[in-house]
Each structure stands twice: as structure tokens, then as C-alpha cells.
Amino acid sequence: MTERLAKIKDHLTAEFSGNVHQTRPDDIVVVSAHRSAIAKGFKGSFKELNTDYLLLQFLKEFFDELPSEISDHKELIGEVTCGNVLNFGAGATEHRSACLAAGIPYTTPFVAVNRQCSSGLTAVNDIANKIKVGQIDIGLALGVESMSKNYAKLNPLGSISEEMKIDPRAKKCMIPMGFTNENVAHMFSITRDEQDEFAANSYQKAEYASSHGLFEDEILPITLQDGTKILKDEGPRKNVTAQNLSALKPAFIKDKGTTTAGNSSQISDGVAGVLLARRSTADNLNLPIIGRYVAFQAVGVPPEIMGVGPAYAIPRVLKDVSLSVKDIDIFEINEAFAAQALYCINKLGIDVKKVNPRGGAIALGHPLGCTGARQVATILRELKSGQVGVVSMCIGTGMGAAAVFIKE
Amino acid sequence: MLAYHMSGYSGYGVQYSPYFDNRLAVVSGSNFGLVGNGKLFVLDIDMHGKIHESNSFLTQDCLFDVAWNELHENQVLVAQGDGTLRLFDTKLKQYPIAIFKEHQKEVFSCNWNLLSKQTFVSSSWDGTVKIWSPTRQQSLVTFLPHTLENTKNVDITTNVPLSNQKQHEGISRNKNCIYQAQFSPHDPNLVMCCSGNSYTTLFDLRQPAHTGNQQSFLAHSGLEVLTCDFNKYRPYTVATGGVDNTIRMWDLRMVGPNSSPAICVNEISGGHELAVRKVSWSPHHSNVLLSTSYDMTCCVWQDLSADGVKNTGRTNSIDPKQGCRFRFAQHTEFVYGADWSLWGQPGFIASTGWDGNVFIWNGLSLK
């Protein structure tokens, strides 16, 4: 009786039947996911490079890594979506041209997306959705950012109308990110010590991963104009401890602030890409399958505490796939700031050992539009076959995004 | 509208006799078919439009489907919850004349071969489809349709505590349950079935019964497929209905090599608010089909994607102008079974459901 009743209940609720491990021909799979090394902003190896150059160098290497079924038939790529935050118009023109220079035929369309820090992940979602509804069979999601070239030019308040500046809701979008993080730290009583501890931990993990070659598989070399190849992340540093971070002065609120350069994400340059396909297409072309895209959700949160985004986006996306936080093996939660990352981890009751096991943006850097795609490349190397991972980040102006991936 | 109420029983299936224009067989279960007896009703419609019971058979477990013997006017087959199929003679009382016991779990559907008339097909919760001859106790062949790779049964007790009894703790969801199996009305060797794993599978009886010979396609994007039916006029057209509340129509010629996602030729989404329980193509029109649903309604649809001769490329919606010919809303509970009358003026339909009512109505007379 119970079984019959359970069946009828299933028919009525029509829930996702809770089995993300089931493979289907219409799955959206990750064929390849890579990133460049992440270079320090303003003084790093990429400081002279435009994003289109970065993208071109990356794509050349990216295609070299792919089997000839796709690298010799780039026309099979049905769409390219590129996330970017700081370029004029999110780089719609120069990044399309970089794709053409990399040998993608002009017949493959291109779209630039900008959802702030989630742009790279939003690009992945955009491609996945297009595959899901049958618009395309194979698509390339990219994220690229040169904060060196464009961050200083950015003045978010430059073209804001008076009406927005006086509207109590609208003006919250203009709060600088550091101050939103001070709000989070203050509202939820996250101490400077906790933040520094978390940041130091990020440095230690990243330094370990970098020096032990854990990033070798995901990083593709970027060839500079002089021929030098850049293969190593520039963010991680040796011997960073909570103690030496505690000596730094607050960056935003001079006396009482807790956000410092040491417990915030670094300004960086980088590029990452994820090639997605429908499983049936990948199988027909004999393409490798490294993982599976399962779901994505973006949510809105109050702009003045935008850092809480993952705390709302993660449960939302997990609900869609009938999973709970404890079912997830690894979380890649972008460390925009230690306080907001800590808040999200604590609020969701995540085991901190599962979060960013190879370090996060505090140590590695946060090239805004690249980050989401970078995290996908990273998490698919951290997960073991069959494990489930979540990629998430907070988003300026008050949002959060999260996506679920399974390693195959 | 004509009506009959089966007191204490919930209807699961109904079929018009292929021999008598005023005779129906209805199968039902007590306690909503969840536990307890089942009952087969043989109903006759008299000259005054009254429906009365001409015979009935009580069974040990609930009955889920019914099929008249195409070769014998008095024989009717039922699919029972205890894994058996039983053949009854309507001239006799009380006992079946044959019992076919092989399925391990509930038998959810049975269907008589309309062309060869010598065989019938059954499908079960145990994940198998079996072909039988009424003259043999053992099945002729057993098919195991496309099963899920990596099937991981989900423990429902962590989800909803439906029972606190110990023997129910191990209950798991079996997504390979086969809800319906049907013979093609065009080819006596072709069988189609649909299952909880969202696949619809086709078998040819002339081929050995291993999975390599099957043609499967994902029909309802991962959600359970509860029903399927062959179009009676267009040999390649089939319809499926499922837990995603949609009805989809497929051209079997467009179902590619195994497992690649097929593109449906027409989809009626939003037509029902809850899962679609049964679809049945009209015996009189190539582009009319009937659906029943947990949303307590039956609908008659005109498939706009084909005008009977060629494809039009049009799609359906719930708008009457866009294909929804009739919505029957007299049932007060889930509607499970429905069948088109082969007799008289086209459009008469018998339907039954959890409310215990059998209604006869015309789905094509209005509008």
C-alpha cells in the first residue's frame, strides 16, 4: 500500500526524482574546462595585455587540448558566450574578434554577458540553457578580465542620474563592495580574527596546491608578446599567517573596519573557458566528458549586504535538484571577502574543509568576469568521479549565483 | 451523459466490448486501489440509457487494467495488483477461467493484440513486459526495456514518512516500473511500452528479446511516462503522457539511434494541471486524442500538427481554437481510465476514476 501511495505522490508532486547521478542522453556535459594562470593586477605578468589578447592566447591553447573532432571542426560550436565585467560593453566587439582570430568561424555567433562577479558562471548557464532547449548542441562559455587595464578606469558612479542617487533603494547599488562587506561583518558579528584566520587558510591552501602542482592540469599557458609563457598563479604567497595578516590596516573604514587588503580578494587578470555539449552529441563525436552541469540559479539579496548572496543562491539551486548541503562534496565559494564567505559558510552549516580546498580568491585572485568559469575548471579537478560540487559567488548590486556540477 | 457509480470502488480502467455496442468492462480497487479487494464490473447500457451491472467479479487485490479478448465475446482479461493477470468469462460467476502468474509486482497494464488476436501483452512494476497466449500458462516472451544506468533507488522514508511500520522501511522508488504496454494496431509484432524512467521503448516480436534490438527514446525529460498509445491511422505516430503534465506526440521515423533525444512533433503543455494518466487516439479520426489526468478532467484534443494527410507544423495549446476540443470535468477525483466507443456516432467516451463513477459522454458533439 505504501509503495502504491508513494507512486501516486510522485506523480502528483512531479518533483525532480532526486537522482542527479542518473545519466541521460540529454544531459549537459562539460567536455573541457581550463583557465589561465591568474596574474596580479597592475604589477603582474598580464598587466600590459588587453583582454582580447588574453582570450586569443587562451583559446589557441584551449583548442590544442581538444580532440580533433572538435578542434578541426570549430563550426560545430553553436554559440560562444563570454563573461566580462569591466570592458566597454562587456567586450562584445573585441572578444568576438578574438574568437575569430582563434579560428572559430564567423558563422558561430557570440554574445557578451555581464552579471558582475558571476559573469563567467552566467556564461556557462547561458550555454547550458541553449543546449537544453535544443538551440545548439555544443557551446563555449568563457570569462575574461583585465583588472589591470580596466579597473582603474571604472567609475561606477560616473553616469548615475540624480534620481538614483536620492532613491533610498537605488542608491544602495552604489555602495562600494568593501563597505557592503563591512556591513556583513558588522551585522553578523564576524570578527577581524576570524576573517584573518580564514584568509590565511586560503593562502596556505593555495600555496600548497600551487607548489604541489595541483593546478597543472587546469592551467593553460598564456604566451606573452615576447614569447614568455606564463603558467603559474601569482597570487599565492608563502608563510602567510593570521598573525601577519592582523598587522594590516583596514582598507575601507579606517578605525573600526575589519576588511583589509589581506582578507579581501586580490585584483587580478585572467581568462577561463568551459566547453559544454549535450551528452548524445559528445558521445557521437567521441568527445571526452569530464563532468556534468546539473543546475544553476541566481537570486537577489539586499545590495548593502551583497556578500550574503551564496547563502541564498546555494539552497535555491539545491532545492531544484533535491539535494542538501550535506550531499555536496566540495564547494567553490568565491572569496570576495573573508567576512562574506564566512557568513555564507556558517549560515549554511557547511563543513569548512569542503570549501575551496585549493584556496580561493583571497589567495588566487578574483579577475571578476573570469572567476565563475575559473571555479568550474578548478572544481572539476577537485571532485572525484561521482562526487557533486557547487560553484557559487556573491554579486555586486545584491545577488548571488550558484551552480551544481557532477564529476564523471 | 450516462453515469454509473461503483459503490466502494475506485475505477482504474474501462474498455468497450469489441462485440457488443452496449457493453463495458470496468476494473477497480477498494480503498482507492491502495489496498484490499479489486472488482471487475461488466456493465450494460439499456434502451433507456441506464447503466446496470450485468456481472461482476471480486478479486483478492486491486485491478489496474482491463482488456477484452478480441477472439471471444465473453472473455475479459484483468491486470491485478498481486502480479497476476486473470481471464474471466462473463457468462460464469465468481472465478477466473485462467490465471497468468509470472510478474513479481503489480501488473499495471494489459492489452490484446488487435491484429493477430492470439496474444496479449502485460506490463508491470517489476520492470518487465510479457507477451502471453490465453492458451498457455507461461508467457511466450519477456522483454526488459531500457533500464536506467546507475539506478540509485531513493529511500522515500527520509522524504515523507508514509508509514512507521518496520516492513515499509526498505521501500524504494523503482523508476523502471512500466506503466503501459500496447500492441501496434498496424503491425502485430510491434509493442510499445513506457516507464517511470522517462523512456518509451519499442520492441519487435520477431527479433530476439534483448535490449540491443529495442528502440528507446527519452519522452518526458526525465519525469515518469505514465501512458502511451499508437495512432490508429498513422502507423508512425504515437502519443505519450507523463508526470510533467504534458502530452507529447512523436513520429517514430524521427526517433534516431538508441538513446539520442528525440524531438517530439507536437506537445500539449499546460493542458492538464497535474500528471497525465492516460492518452488514447480516436478510433474514428487520425488527429483526435483523449487524455485523462490527476487534475480530475478528461480532454479531447485535435492534433494540429497533422491534418490527417500531411504535417502542418502547427502546435497545440489549451485554447479551444488551438486544439482543445472538449474538457470533461464531471469527475470529482483523479481520472484514470477512459476508452472511445467503437460504435455508433463517433465521439462517445467512457471514463472512470477514483470517485467510483463511470461516465459516458460525447467528446465531439459540442463546439
TrEMBL record, chain A:
Reaction equations catalysed: an acyl-CoA + acetyl-CoA = a 3-oxoacyl-CoA + CoA
Gene Ontology terms for molecular function: acetyl-CoA C-acyltransferase activity
Gene3D superfamilies for the chain: 3.40.47.10
GO biological process: fatty acid beta-oxidation; phenylacetate catabolic process
Name under which the protein is recorded: acetyl-CoA C-acyltransferase
Alphabetical UniProt keywords: Acyltransferase, Fatty acid metabolism, Lipid metabolism, Peroxisome, Transferase, Transit peptide
Primary localisation category: other
Pathway(s) per entry: Lipid metabolism; fatty acid metabolism
The protein's Enzyme Commission number: 2.3.1.16
Thiolase N-terminal domain location: 28-279
UniProt family annotation: Belongs to the thiolase-like superfamily. Thiolase family.
Domain of life: Eukaryota
Subcellular location: Peroxisome
Active site (catalytic residues): C117, H366, C394
Automatic annotation (TrEMBL), chain B:
Cross-referenced InterPro entries: Beta-prop_EIPR1-like, PEX7, WD40/YVTN_repeat-like_dom_sf, WD40_PAC1, WD40_repeat_CS, WD40_repeat_dom_sf, WD40_rpt
Presence of keyword Protein transport: yes
SMART domains: WD40
An example Gene Ontology biological process: protein import into peroxisome matrix
Source organism superkingdom: Eukaryota
Coiled coil residues, start to end: none
Each WD repeat, start to end: 100-142, 238-253, 269-302
Subcellular location: Cytoplasm, Cytosol; Peroxisome matrix
Gene Ontology MF: a single term: peroxisome matrix targeting signal-2 binding
Gene Ontology CC annotations of this record: cytosol; peroxisomal matrix
Protein name: Peroxin-7
Highest classification ranks of the organism: Eukaryota, Fungi, Dikarya, Ascomycota, Saccharomycotina
